[in-house]
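From the shared-data thread, chain only:
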Amino acid sequence: MSEQVHNRLAMVRAERKVSRQSLAGAVGVHYQTIGYIERGQYNPSLDLALKIAGFFGLPVEALFSLEPFRPLTDEVYGRSQ
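Structure, as tokens:
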């Protein structure tokens, strides 16, 4: 059984004003696949995760993790968990 892959895809996509359809077209998947990934209903393949990260010009670990991400406000303002 595979582990859940946590992601910040929805946040980054919204910040960059990129639609699910635009991202999906750029990385070669159906737009619903992007929604499934964002909701944690589907773990992307390594190939797809790298394509998504490349689209945004970010390292893959900035978007995907096996551990839950700390809230962004904690990271920005230095609060500990």
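The first helix runs from residue 9 to 15.
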